[in-house]
TrEMBL record:
Name recorded for this polypeptide: Large ribosomal subunit protein bL35
Keyword list, A-Z: Ribonucleoprotein, Ribosomal protein
NCBIfam families per record: rpmI_bact
Signal peptide span: none
Feature: compositional bias, Basic residues: 1-28
Chain positions covered by the region annotation Disordered: 1-30
Family recorded in the similarity comment: Belongs to the bacterial ribosomal protein bL35 family.
High-level lineage: Bacteria, Bacillati, Bacillota, Bacilli, Bacillales
GO molecular-function terms, A-Z: structural constituent of ribosome
GO cellular component: cytosolic large ribosomal subunit
Organism this protein belongs to: Seinonella peptonophila
Gene: rpmI
């Protein structure tokens, strides 16, 4: 019996992306509503993507294939 390929989790592919060097990029949470309560500095920082913490990278890479 042939070994089947592992399917990627489509929810994870929408949220995470691999960089050219193999790191995992993600967007920040807390960006959908309640912007009056957030400072301009906080809103500016939330706009930019960031890298996943190294403790989560192995698990996320297995989900995104």
């Amino acid at each position: 019996m042939a070994k089947q390929k592992m399917k990627t989790k489509s929810a994870a592919t929408k949220r995470f992306r691999k960089t050219g060097t193999g790191k995992v990029r993600r967007n920040h949470g807390y960006t959908n509503h309640m912007f009056l309560a957030k400072s301009p500095k906080q809103k500016r920082k939330l706009r930019k993507a960031t890298l996943m913490h190294k403790s989560d990278v192995k698990r996320i890479k297995s989900l995104i294939g």
